[in-house]
Amino acid sequence: MNEHRANEHRNGPVRSAAARDAILEATARLFQSEGYDHLTIEGIAKEAGVGKQTIYRWWPTRGALIADCLSDGRLFAVDFAVPDTGDLVADVEQWLDTVIPILDAPGGGALLRSLVAAAAEDSAVGDHLSESLGVERHLSERLTAGIRDGQLAPGAPVDELGHAILGTIIVQVLSRQDDATDRLRQLVRFMLRSGSPQNGPLSPTDAK
Question: Do residues 189 and 89 make contact, with C-beta atoms less than 8 angstroms apart?
Fold first, then answer.
């Protein structure tokens, strides 16, 4: 009896891990193929081969599932690091060259629109999207280094700049305009150069 209970104890976490993986994989597949509007817990359960209650035990909403898919790298399997060559504007543009093609590729715009819809219902999706694209860590660290190197003024609002750049990326990709990438580059250059010591620090009001 004790040996049987020990086996149950050992198998439990294994089964749980397998079920979690199946659920997140099913969520990612359905989310990418059908979009957020058509994503249902029932559909995910059927795709994953589990009961709905198994899903609700770990995730209270569809948004929570999408947030975990993002944090696990199941929607964006790319490391969006920002280089540090000593030229802040060029480094951020190189980061954009990595991010934009992923979002601008066939299906990328639809995926981003679904993520925006999911974020409207669950703020964790927006937080994890920011993390997945490297804004929260890589971009913030590079902007902070820009202050250290004198390419951004002391007191430049690093977090606000990162969020403004992310918001601009989202708006430009969703606009579906042919020159969206060029317009994004122009705006990012303006934002970063406006915050250089030669032009004075950006105030919180200016960053909004």
Answer: yes
Provide the CB-side half-sphere exposure for 63 (13 A, CA).
Answer: 14
Which one is predicted more confidently, 112 or 84? 84
Please tell me whether residues 200 and 129 are part of one structural domain: yes
| For the chain, the helix, strand and coil percentages under 3-state DSSP, each to the nearest 5 | 75, 0, 25
Tally of domains in the chain? 2
* CA–CA separation, 31 and 144 (whole Å): 35
Q: What is the pTM of this model?
A: 0.73
CA 115/CA 93 separation, integer angstroms: 23
Query: Are residues 148 and 51 both part of a single domain?
Result: no
Contacts of 15 (CB under 8 A, 6+ apart): none
**151-174: per-residue pLDDT in tens?**
999 989 999 999 998 888 888 777
Q: Are residues 114 and 201 in the same domain?
A: yes
Residue where a domain terminates, one of 59, 78, 108:
59
Given its phi and psi angles, is residue 207 left (phi above 0), alpha (psi -120 to 50 degrees) or beta? alpha
Residue 178 and residue 93 share a domain: yes
Contact yes or no for 54/62 (Cβ under 8 A): no
